[in-house]
Write a structure and sequence with these properties.
Oligomer: single chain
CATH topology of the largest domain: Rossmann fold
Bound molecules: adenosine-5'-triphosphate, magnesium ion
Radius of gyration: 18 Å
Largest sheet: 6 strands, mixed
Number of helices: 8
Distance between the termini: 33 Å
Strand content: 25-35%
Strand order of the largest sheet: 6-7-8-3-9-10
Shape: globular
Helix content: 25-40%
Length: 248
């Protein structure tokens, strides 16, 4: 398989407003974006620029006020109930604040998303493999509260990958990790993309992470203020230098 087996994402004129106190805030303001199947896109921008909100809209966790999100041939913003639930099951989502189920062990947290589905080949085996891949072999029986923030984040990543998603939305997946562990998580994601095909949209504040993506989209006040292709054949050191000169 190749990288083109990931999902294609098309966002058109997307708007999401919030009412915080008396002042309305446009968290996502007329964003249009096309993401090629199999690409890895870094979503950057200062705190409050709309990264999480955009990910939530693409993942159908929040509803848009206007505009559309289309993933492959499905207009996600038009889905209702059962179809929406099916869509959410098909994608992988890593939340900024993990959202692990506190009463379940690490292993059960990873297996949880596929439990409603019948006929899967050995979910326990796959969950163990993923936990091993994120460096948590041996912690299967721990509870989330017994893990550090970075370890909980890695459980959340394993959980998001459990259903073999064609689209992974990850909100600062390496934000609570030291740079070595963060780099290893990105290695894992890029390797999965290369071997199985996956489109990845990830919010990040880190240059070292953004520099390894195919494209950098920077938000400012809910709008796209920069969109840079990082795949034009430069060596990784050049790309890192280039990203160093960009504002994140
Ligand atoms: N549920 C909500 N209610 C009210 N305002 C919200 C809500 N969620 C987000 N906002 C506002 O929308 C704007 C964008 O927030 P968002 O969380 O998307 O930013 P972000 O880029 O992810 O920031 P960070 O880097 O801090 O995670 C901010 O002004 C935020 O205060
Ligand atoms: Mg955020």
């Amino acid at each position: 398989m190749d990288a083109t087996t990931g999902s294609t994402v098309r966002v058109t004129g997307l708007v999401r407003r919030f009412r915080a106190g008396t002042e309305p805030i446009t968290a996502v303001d007329e964003v249009s974006l096309e993401i090629a199947a199999g690409s890895v896109v870094a979503l950057t921008g200062p705190s409050g620029s709309g990264k999480s909100t955009l990910l939530h809209l693409v993942g159908a966790i929040e509803q848009a006020d206007s505009g559309t999100v289309t993933v492959d041939d499905v207009e996600v913003t038009a889905l209702r109930r059962a179809a929406l639930a099916r869509y959410r099951q098909r994608i992988g989502f890593v939340f900024q604040r993990y959202h692990l189920l506190p009463a379940l062990t690490v292993l059960d947290n990873v297996i949880a998303p596929v439990l409603p589905r019948r006929g899967r080949v050995d979910p326990v085996g796959r969950a163990r493999e993923l936990l091993d891949a994120v460096g948590l072999a041996g912690r299967e029986r721990s509870l989330p509260t017994q893990l550090s923030g970075g370890q909980q984040q890695r459980v959340a990543i394993a959980r998001a990958l459990m259903g073999e998603p064609r689209l992974l939305l990850a909100d600062e997946p390496t934000g609570n990790l030291d740079s070595t562990t963060g780099g290893q998580i990105l290695d894992l994601l890029l390797d999965l993309r290369d071997r199985h095909g996956m489109t990845i949209l990830l919010a990040t504040h880190e240059r070292a992470i953004a520099a390894r993506c195919d494209r950098l989209v920077r938000l400012g006040d809910g709008r796209i203020v920069e969109d840079v292709d990082l795949t034009d054949g430069e060596d990784p050191a050049d790309t890192y230098d280039r990203v160093s000169r960009l504002r994140l």
